[in-house]
Amino acid sequence: MGEAEIVLVKIRSISLKFLVFVVALVSGAALAQARTDVLFITVDDMNTWNSLYNESAPIRLPNITRLAKRGTLFTRAYCSSSACNPSRASVITGLRPSTTGVYGNKSDWRGATPKRRTIMQQFMRNGYRVEGAGKIFHHHLNGAFHDKASFHDFLMMAPQNMPKEKLNKSPRYGSGNTDWGAWPKYEHDTIDYKSAEYCIKALTKKRADKAPLFLAFGVFKPHSPFFAPQKYHDLYPEDIKMPLLNPKDWDDLPSGAMQLMKKTKWFWTGMQAVDKKGPGSYQRFIRSYVACSSFADAQVGRVVDALDASGRADNTVIVLWSDHGFHLGEKSHIEKFALWEKANHIPFLVVAPGVAKPGSICERPVDMTAIYPTLLELAGLPPDAQCDGKSVVPLLRDPQTAWQPAVMTYGKGNHAVRDERWRYIRYADGSEELYDHDKDPNEWTNLAKNPEYGEIKVTLAAHMPKIEAEPFKDLKRKSY
User: How far is CA 334 from the centre of its chain?
Assistant: First the structure.
């Protein structure tokens, strides 16, 4: 080989190495850009009687509404289960209650899934800094349901000096001093203000490491007792709009529904008794729930404003969801703990820059087993084959994409399926409910016994879980 040829080979070698170096730099930059931050927001007990879905609804959510305009709002989103613990455990693990046996608020979710990585742990093992505050896991037993291994740093729900007598524990149930009303005086004394403050600092502080951030913000309100500072009550008139009620709503309920609802029947009958004794109590109760919803909305707004001020919003995926809905007297029921629409229909939105078209609406029914696989896909992390749900990224790209119905479970053997028109419920004893939401959005007429709808029930029943895990034991210890 001549000297000229040797020089040419060296030049080519250097050029190839330089090209590889440039490609590596570009790929690294693309990967860094792909490693999006995540803001994970969950709100407790928030139903859909609000301005996200209907401008004439009494609950005003200006901050959550403006957030929805940045991404996709799912108008038919449903929880996995209408109780705090099984719902949250399902979202965090990506597994249905029927898979894990976590059916109740006392179920030891971590004991039931000891080797399952939470969604936060999936991000941790892929180089993310994971922080959080507030109610992410169920808050009972002094935080015993919280999973320390899922966070690098976490601020537990701050104490709020709750009145000692509250809800059904109070011998004076129904008193505005023990169950609902304007309290405390200063917003900075509230649980959610302190949780939001932690998240604001997490978004604005300068970190030595350049790891992407997964930040979880758990908003406790509008969970009962319905206390919020006075200014949030002042947003609404004393004669606030009331829910639509049907005194004969339970006349066509099957045995399974009657059995399931026995434990919570006291709340509605108690409210009726309180309102009879002190006229206007029920309306003040409603106004307090509405005020708590606006208070929760304000805390979400504070955190989103901090994200915008940080300059990281364009590379942050935001997911906001509620752990379940809430009845305010509809179907003669107060609370969640049911398989009806109001207990399961929830706010759910996803902001995914470059994926979800701002201001888009998706009317396909989805349930919250979708969150786990969706966040993995949006962050470019490996998929998890064990997930019971599937990623809604196709719906973020095209909200008209064909989709499967949403599935809900409350207690072993009790399931509901919701497509775009129908809600079908089948209880553990085989009894059923069927509602046509095109004609009966209040679910006042149970069509399950009408043979005309037999095929519809069969079609919907095919989506019910095939696995029926035995209920896992209750958690006994008081705290971690």
Answer: 19
Instruction: Say if residue 351's pLDDT is above 70.
Output: yes
Of 192-196, 206-210, 309-313, least confident by mean pLDDT is: 206-210
Using DSSP bridges, classify how beta strands 415-418 and 422-426 pair: parallel, antiparallel or unpaired. antiparallel
Structure tokens at 402: 């064909």
Domain that holds residue 228: 35-461
Neighbours of 197 (CB within 10 A): 18
**Residue 47 to residue 61: CA distance in whole angstroms:** 12
Burial of 209 (0-12, 13-18, 19+ CB in 10 A): exposed
Q: What is the pLDDT of residues 114-172, one digit of tens each?
A: 999 999 999 999 999 999 999 999 998 888 999 999 999 999 987 665 555 544 443 34
* 286, part of any domain: yes
The sheet that has 422-426: what strands, in order across it? Answer: 406-409, 415-418, 422-426, 432-436
The predicted-structure confidence for 156-205, as pLDDT tens digits, reads as follows 987 665 555 544 443 344 555 567 888 888 999 899 999 999 999 999 98
pLDDT of residue 11: 47
Cα 220 to chain center, whole Å? 12
In a domain, residue 477? The reply is: no
What's the rounded Cα separation, in Å, for the pair 68 and 348?
9
Length of the chain: 480
Per residue in 411-428, pLDDT (tens digit) is 999 999 999 999 999 999
Dihedral angle, C-alpha 60, 62, 68, 70, nearest 10 °: 170
pLDDT of residue 141: 86
Residue carrying structure tokens 């639509």: 244
- The enclosing domain of 101 has a CATH number of 3.40.720.10
Q: Which residues are bridge partners to 360 per DSSP?
A: 72
Domain count, the chain: 1
Is 164 part of any domain? yes
Q: What are the residue numbers of the active site?
A: 84, 138
Cα separation, 275 vs 178, in Å, equals 15
Give residue 269's identity as a one-letter amino acid code. T
d(CA 304, CA 347): 17
What lies within 8 Å, CB to CB, of 218 at 6+ separation is: 41, 42, 44, 132, 133, 134, 135, 136, 157, 195
Q: Supply the angle between the helices 84-93 and 371-378 in degrees, to the nearest 10.
A: 30
pLDDT at 78 over 90: yes
DSSP code for 85: H
Across-strand partners of 59? 50
